[in-house]
Write a structure and sequence with these properties.
Structural class of chain B: mainly beta
Radius of gyration of chain B: 13 Å
Largest interface: A-B, 24 and 25 residues
Number of helices of chain B: 0
Number of strands of chain B: 11
Low-confidence stretches of chain A: none
Number of helices of chain A: 0
Radius of gyration of chain A: 13 Å
Distance between the termini of chain A: 40 Å
Mean pLDDT of chain A: 93
Shape of chain B: globular
Largest sheet of chain B: 7 strands, mixed
Order of helices and strands of chain A: EEEEEEEEEEE
Structural class of chain A: mainly beta
Helix content of chain B: under 10%
Oligomer: heterodimer
Helix content of chain A: under 10%
Number of strands of chain A: 11
Order of helices and strands of chain B: EEEEEEEEEEE
């Protein structure tokens, strides 16, 4: 059974601070790693899909890096704003079949 | 604008009843997926489809079935609802079999009493 681990489970950060969290996944049979942002009472929205070792993606103040050899991805948020409060999910794509295995998420709360 | 919708948004049913949850997308996506979300488990894949007449079992498919008769719809049926199937159900779609992001519907909260 594939295991995708995210840490920490929850995080409280002051507005304006930068933060980061981790997604760990199996390093074998890697195809793609997805990041989603999930706000309360809404549905998950895609942030990034990453496929190449060393890949870096950026959207506004949010960026992500990927290390497929050691099986981890970092998500960074620079200068956190209250609207960044959400649960951030990562998901491992098994062999390109889009059969995503999700981690349990990191719940981020930005304190004004 | 293209979208993905689910109905009903909330449903209460009794143990043993058959229940169907609807999912409809206007993205013209080939791929569609059903997930359930439970505390302590995150999102888990129930069934998925790569196109019309194609359906596949996911990680937690027991007690569920799907059918794909057109591109737009992938209804999820609980053959005989059980209390363990109380959950929030999300439908998602994506454009190809490649590394494309999935677009999620708003979710259906199902309670089995």
């Amino acid at each position: 059974i594939l295991n995708v681990e995210q840490s920490p489970q929850s995080l409280h950060v002051q507005e304006g601070d930068s933060t980061n969290f981790t997604c760990s996944f199996p390093s074998s049979n890697f195809y793609a790693l997805h990041w989603y942002r999930w706000e309360t009472a809404k549905s998950p929205e895609a942030l990034f899909v990453m496929t190449l070792n060393g890949d870096e993606k950026k959207k506004g103040q949010i960026s992500a890096t990927l290390n497929t050899k050691e099986g981890y991805s970092y998500l960074y948020i620079k200068g956190s704003q209250p609207e960044d409060s959400a649960t951030y999910l990562c998901a491992f794509d098994i062999q390109g079949a889009q059969k995503l295995v999700f981690g349990q998420g990191t719940r981020l709360t930005i304190n004004p | 604008d293209a979208e993905i919708t689910q109905s009903p948004r909330h449903k209460i049913t009794e143990t043993g009843r058959q229940v169907t949850l609807a999912c409809h997308q206007t993205w013209n996506h080939n791929n569609m997926f059903w997930y359930r979300q439970d505390l302590g488990h995150g999102l888990r894949l129930i069934h998925y489809s790569y196109g019309v007449q194609d359906t596949n079992k996911g990680e937690v498919s027991d007690g569920y079935s799907v059918s794909r008769s057109n591109t737009e719809d992938l209804p999820l049926t609980l053959e005989s609802a059980a209390s363990s199937q109380t959950s929030v159900y999300f439908c998602a779609s994506s454009s190809t079999r490649d590394t494309y992001e999935q677009y999620f519907g708003p979710g259906t909260r199902l309670t089995v009493t």
